[in-house]
Design brief:
Elements: E1 2-4, H1 8-30, H2 32-42, H3 45-53, E2 57-63, E3 66-75, E4 80-87, H4 96-110, E5 115-121, H5 125-133, E6 137-147, E7 150-160
Parallel strand pairs: 4-5
Antiparallel strand pairs: 1-2, 2-3, 3-4, 5-7, 6-7
Helix pairs in contact: 1-2, 1-3
Length: 164
């Protein structure tokens, strides 16, 4: 169900999924110019390869012999930072998000971590609702200048993991 992205072919697949999911999901939230900019800067094959080189771990989510989403995480000193977590719209509501998140929690616990953090756009109401349902709380507001006149206006959310 989860395949670690560790070669150029899988990086290309991940970048293709990013373009599909981001275009559908984020156009109404941040507009076409920022979506294009962020895909090029953060989710192109070259950007993904660079992030993997810097310690991010990307995983494809597989369902019924097809890749339907992906996530990326990085281990910080005391937390797992969930950098990306995306599932195709047509595959939502099937339990894939919950199964993926269970895998992410296990990944954190296997590495001795009891905290998962993430950032989410403040206007991404559906995702915020899902994260709250998964046990996350809003820890703070974060505005990050990403260049080219764009900012990410996010909430930092976090979840304590019970190692039991």
């Amino acid at each position: 169900m989860f395949l670690e992205v560790d070669n150029d072919n899988l990086i290309e697949k991940t970048a293709g999924l990013a373009a599909e999911i981001w275009t559908e999901h984020y156009l109404p939230i941040i507009g076409p110019e920022q979506v294009k900019y962020m895909l090029d800067k953060f989710q192109s094959a070259a950007a993904i390869a660079g992030q993997i080189h810097k310690g991010y771990r990307y995983f494809l989510i597989e369902d019924e012999m097809d890749y339907v989403g992906y996530f990326a995480a990085r281990f910080d000193n005391d937390a797992l930072f969930l950098s990306k977590f995306y599932v195709k719209k047509s595959c939502r509501g099937k339990g894939l998000g919950r199964a993926t998140f269970n895998f992410i929690e296990k990944l954190a616990m296997d590495n001795g971590l009891e905290l998962i953090t993430l950032t989410v756009n403040k206007r991404n109401k559906d995702s915020i609702k899902v994260y709250k349902k998964l046990g996350f709380i809003i820890a703070e507001k974060v505005v990050t200048d990403i260049g080219n006149g764009f900012v990410m206006d996010d909430y930092k959310m976090e979840k304590q993991i019970d190692p039991e």
